[in-house]
């Protein structure tokens, strides 16, 4: 059983008459609110009137505002001046430290600039060296064209008239020449270039025809890019004719296109050979050749720089030489006159260029 609730029981009070009538309650609350609003307005108005009686006139307000502004400005100026003075005192110490650090910084900047300049120079030098190395290491290739050179005997020779006469008497189609190119030569003559694998034979035929047309007026030649070989390691029984025959047979050229220097008296035979560059490439490709009873070695020499045989300087030829020095009859070994380098017995001497 649930226990009995302890306490005293009382009857519930009945609601009052005010709470019973809700409408009367709302009306009463509304009246009270309106009375409070009126009271607030009266208090605000009374405060405004009191402030008007206490407030000074506008002129006094303007003067007081100006004075306060001046005071504020003075205060600001003083504050700014004091802060600047403090900053100056602090900056003086910093400036002294900076002045002490300036030479070190200038030295550091100069060192960094010099390093950058050295780096840029080294980069440029490396680029130049790489270009030179690539040019030196680049494989030499034979020319793709064969050429015919025309050089007038007299200074009054007209190349235009000579070409017109040659064009009227020589038909290139009959010689099998379909394309050709004419350009100025280094000796102030003209070059007729003929491309193609069989350009050599076509150029020979054209040179023969031009010799007949321009006989006595101009020299017609067949120039070609020359290559130099050194053949060594053969015995004493090998002669110059053997060298001629071996180079002509291996290089597939004519004997008159080859130039052989006299034999040198060495422990092993050695000879210098000049021939068309294509022939030199064919001969040097094998490396070794059997000449009579011995096996000789072949070496392709490096290309010589362009040199003038009048002043002995480089990068130009005799016809374009502007120097007053004439060493065309001098010896290459001793720079003396009256003999050649082959028969020179004097000491070596390099002439000043």
Please provide a written account of the structure.
Residues 121-140 have a biased composition (Basic and acidic residues). Residues 307-323, 330-346 form the CCHC-type domain. The protein is α+β, with helices and mostly antiparallel strands and 353 residues long. Among the domains are: 25-54; 145-221, Alpha-Beta Plaits (2-Layer Sandwich), CATH 3.30.70.1130; 226-300, 2-Layer Sandwich (Alpha-Beta Plaits), CATH 3.30.70; 314-353, no CATH class. Helix content is 47%, strand content 15%. β6 (259-260) and β7 (269-276) form a beta hairpin. The radius of gyration is 57 Å and the shape is elongated. The termini are far apart. Mean pLDDT is 76; it is low at 71-85.
Give the SSE layout.
Elements: H1 17-20, H2 22-54, H3 58-137, E1 145-152, H4 159-169, E2 181-184, E3 190-195, H5 199-213, E4 218-221, E5 226-234, H6 240-251, E6 259-260, E7 269-276, H7 277-286, E8 288-291, E9 294-300
Antiparallel strand pairs: 1-3, 1-4, 2-3, 5-7, 5-9, 6-7, 8-9
Helix pairs in contact: 6-7
